[in-house]
Amino acid sequence: MTQTQALRLGVNIDHVATLRNARGGDLPDPVRAAALAAQCGADGITAHLREDRRHIRDGDIERLAREIDLPLNMEMAATEEMRDIALKHRPNACCLVPESREEVTTEGGLNVVGEAAALGEIIAPLKAQNVRISLFIDPEPDQIAESAALGADIVELHTGTYCHAHADEDTQRVQAEIARLQAAAISAAQAGLEVHAGHGLCFETVGAVAAMPEIVELNIGHFLIGASVFSGMPEAIAEMRRCMQAGRSAIGGRS
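Above: the chain's sequence. Below: its structure in token form.
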């Protein structure tokens, strides 16, 4: 029986920037939110610099890299522009995600199999500068295998389909998605990849994912920022931690 790794919480502060940008100006400050998240027990900070700059701005990434001591996970499209920005600031990790101007939020995982050559051109110079590479993927065997072949350090499994099934109260689909995520987590770990997960997770859905011992980090943003409006960030992060720990404690071990 192997010892289960501790489960980390990465807090995504994108939607503090969304609120700031809705009015213009500098407030609320997403970097201040990142500092508060660090004080409240976050293990890392995630920020997605989109091509259209709809929330996080270039200056936010610069300040996060300079002012926040926690590891910075920079989500980004696989473009030369984003690669060059990442090379300038050298975050702890770059999580490559699919991006469409028309989408409200990221709608699914990267097609690593179909875009391997283009992804490789973005990945190689980042790895050469010791930036860890994470690929945001759907929990599918072929995407996991290609991610490993490309030399990714991490895969982040897209939990959005599971969370949508939960919201729809579709119990059968919920169980099917949990099984799919668990199989993907096992496969990714066996391939030597560090396994993260995220997208759409909330207090009610996080436990089942936290109970997967291969997953070592969850990245959660929109829900936490929304909950913070009502209870404050310290309580929102503390409650998420409690829910994560409850799920993690349910692990009986795997021999």
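The chain has a mean pLDDT of 95.
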